[in-house]
Amino acid sequence: MPSNESKLTVVGAGLVGSLLALYLARRGHTVEVLERRADMRRETLDAGRSINLAISTRGLHALRQVGLEEEALKHAIPMRGRVIHPVKGELAFQPYGKDDSQHINSLSRGWLNKFLMTQAEATGRVSIRFQQRVTRADPAAGALTVLDEATGETREVRDAVVFGTDGSGSAVRQALQSQAGSQSDSETLGHGYKELTIPPGEGGRFQMEKHALHIWPRGTYMLIALPNEDGSFTCTLFLPWEGPVSFASLQTPAALEAFFQEQFPDAKALIPGLVEEFFSRPTGHMVTVKCAPWHAGERTLLLGDAAHAIVPFYGQGMNCGFEDCVVLDALLAKQPDFGQAFREFERLRKTNADAIADMAVENFIEMRDSTADPRFLLEKGVEKV
Ligand code: FAD
Q1: Can you give the pLDDT at residue 130?
Q2: I want to staple 116 with a disulfide (CB 3.0 to 4.6 A). Which of 18, 99, 138, 156 is the partner?
């Protein structure tokens, strides 16, 4: 049976794995984190993969518990509501709450991930090993096969307590699912996404309202934009994969430019690299994963996207994963038996995770469609910008 002295292995040093390692270290454990990518503090991040994200109360609460909220907020831009961009006509502002205290925050994903890794290492109990890809897991035994991508060598980890925070395509989850009685439902959205940039204006000024999430709702598709610290905005275009207006229909620069001119004329004027970025950057997939169980005895537990990947339209994937860390930490504080804590964790979190997964899909329809509906605007007390 694993004890306080057991080897704890976190698979994946993404947002959730890095924060989890920090939480476990503060509880006195020594933690090894295995990350398949190179150290992003030394290498440049790939452009076009979710550059910024919205952190809300849930996520901030998780950072507050480990004393990191204040520093994170220094790098965040409060977004007090949505600015709706119609094809023609005036912009409309939909506040998120009755006053400015009710807002979400735009934060750089890369900055936050690096910050969390550094803070985890600073405890002196966490070592993050990069270019270490887990290729096989035996969840009940706490065993892993790890490929060192730098040397090509393979090694075995045995008798560990394994935390699978290796994201929506989790290798640890796949191993758990091969066990009898497990269930998994993975649904890929019929839309993909592409990131585009509105650079800062002269003197680093923001070229649109800074304190807002911008939305261009267009029915079956939409464009959104979140502000960045340097005065730029990262736009995300959500489009169906196939159909009359889709990634499949936008195959040439001329088709893309004509589409933007017709549907997003104000955004087009602000995205000088439209053609280059659209055709060179990857197109992202979005998936909802609902699975069970999330744990194998007292040896393996899934958290974050590995347990419950959701589509990004509620801006709650990371927030929900951060809340996982808070809940698990509280359970381990009450009783250090990993088996009981893991069972209770799944009981407490699974219903919530399934609910937010459904709400995120529903919010896609609200964002791309209803936000432009005059009745919706009336209900929400919309102001002109
Ligand atoms: P990940 O961030 O995917 O990290 C997993 C880590 O595991 C990675 O570092 C990966 O390299 C590593 N890994 C994977 N496989 C292995 C392996 N076999 N061995 C070793 N390491 C491995 N959430 C929000 O809360 N707010 C938002 O505004 C928001 N916006 C989003 C916008 C977009 C376009 C997308 C796609 C997602 C958005 N999300 C948002 C969701 C959020 O990105 C995820 O919920 C969050 O990244 C989950 O963190 P994670 O650590 O569980 O997984």
Answers
A1: 98
A2: 18
Q: Which residue has the tokens 């790939």?
A: 46
Domain annotation covers residue 162: yes
Asked if residue 36 is part of any domain, the answer here is yes
d(CA 231, CA 33): 34
User: Which SS3 state, helix, strand or coil, does residue 302 take?
Assistant: strand
Cis amide linkage into residue 272, ω under 30° from 0: no
Report the pocket of ligand 1 as residue ranges, CB < 6 Å. 11-17, 34-37, 50, 53-54, 133-134, 165-167, 171, 193, 236, 284, 304-306, 312, 315-319, 321
Q: Residue 121: which CATH number?
A: 3.50.50.60
Whether the Cβ atoms of residue 175 and residue 301 lie closer than 8 Å to each other: no
Helix (H, G, I), strand (E, B) or coil at 64: helix
Instruction: State in Å: Cα 176 to ligand 1 middle.
Output: 19
Task: Say which DSSP state 282 is in.
Answer: P
In a domain, 240, yes or no: no
ipTM score above 0.85 = yes
Residue 96 CA: distances (Å) to CA of 8, 70, 376:
40, 22, 14
Structural domain boundaries, residue 331: 7-74+106-184+289-360
- For 26, other C-beta atoms within 10 Å of its C-beta total 15
Residues 205 and 380: their CA atoms lie apart, in Å, by: 30
Compute the distance from residue 132 Cα to the ligand 1 centre, in Å: 17
Share of the chain above pLDDT 70, in %: 93
Indicate which atom in ligand 1 lies nearest the CA of residue 168: 3
- The pairing of beta strand 104-108 with beta strand 52-55: antiparallel
Number of domains in the chain: 1
pLDDT tens digits, residue range 203-223? 999 999 999 999 999 999 999
**Residue type for position 318:** M
Q: What burial class does residue 171 get, using C-beta atoms within 10 Å of its C-beta: 0-12 exposed, 13-18 middle, 19+ buried?
A: buried
